Input
Amino acid sequence: MQRVYEEQKGIYSYRRITIYLNHFLNAQVNHKCVHRLMEASFFMLLIHSTS
Output
């Protein structure tokens, strides 16, 4: 998960990382698990503004 996050330069959200893990790496994880792990490891500290 960290590798995917770093490859995408931190622009992937937990939802996109979940799709990536399930589709490309054949991992069976749900979005809640990925969200919890990202919060625990401080991946979600960067906030991207939409404006």
